Amino acid sequence: MAARIFVVSGDDSHRSRLIDVLSGAGYRTSGAATFAEAKQVLGSSSADLVIAEERLGAFNGLHVIVLGRAVHPDMKAIVMTAQRDPALETDARRLNVDCVVESADPEEWLESVSRTLDAATPCAGPTIHRRAAQLRVGYPVITCDHLVTTGWLESNHLLCGVSQRRFADVR
Q: Which is it for the CA torsion 34, 40, 44, 46, positive or negative?
């Protein structure tokens, strides 16, 4: 069965081109242009891999990935960036997300996708503990309620753990 890949990019032509390349390679693909669209889609369907653009308005691709993994903990992920960004790479590494500099070469994309899908599990990096339906990634547990009351969902702060509640429960 072909892997399901969800592409999140605000650039319509880039998203379409990437979806075409992946579909041509036999993957089942879908896409979204905004964080809100991605949140809605991931709340109602799963993906084996999410490829998210670094910048999505007030949010970034790691926000999409963290919220997606709250519902689909085995989801693998790639965050794509226009140029190398050590801070993004550090945050991505903490969340066991591949950070890839965008390429115009379809073969490079397919290689990155294949490598990520072949990885053992998305949790191979940081140790993840499940307690009281919470996800903990090596630093204090923060629930979705906390994210809502502190305004995190409307900001672009460093990512921490999230509760395993459905997206509908998060504003």
A: positive
